[in-house]
Amino acid sequence: MDAGLTATINPTDISPRRDGGGRGPTATISQTEELDLLVQNASPDPFWQKESPYFLVECKNWSKHVGARELRDLWGKMEGRYDRCRLALLVAPDGIADTVRTLQLQNAKQSKLVVLIGPGDLDWLVAGPDRSAILKELHQRAVSAASSEGDVEGST
């Protein structure tokens, strides 16, 4: 992984192919949860140094859009990390339901941020020459969504 982001997986086990070819890393499974990827943030980049020591990556290679339940589940996984994981990437090659974005906006005041990576974003990330810059832009888009949309009333 670039930008000093490290993970305890064998890089040869990861396929960057958008078509689903290749093999992904084995999920970490405990008695209470399954994690697709836990990334240790060892980046020398000041942008990433401001983030939490660990990131979660949740990959949903489904034939349907990812919904609000998956976002809630991911927030729950982030909470179980002694406040050392406040950033996650939710990767959904087949799309993300509008309910996910709405729920994200409703909870924008919490300290946990989930960066949504849909089909176009994934293509851009895989093909892009500077993945760190692309991830920064996706991160900024996620943060900016809350301020540009304003606070959405209600909570879940």
UniProtKB/TrEMBL annotation:
GO terms for molecular function: DNA binding; endonuclease activity. Residues 1-27 are annotated as: Disordered. One of its GO terms (biological process) is DNA restriction-modification system. InterPro entries: Restrct_endonuc_IV_Mrr. Residues 50-103 form the Restriction endonuclease type IV Mrr domain. This is Restriction endonuclease type IV Mrr domain-containing protein. It comes from Sorangium cellulosum (Polyangium cellulosum).
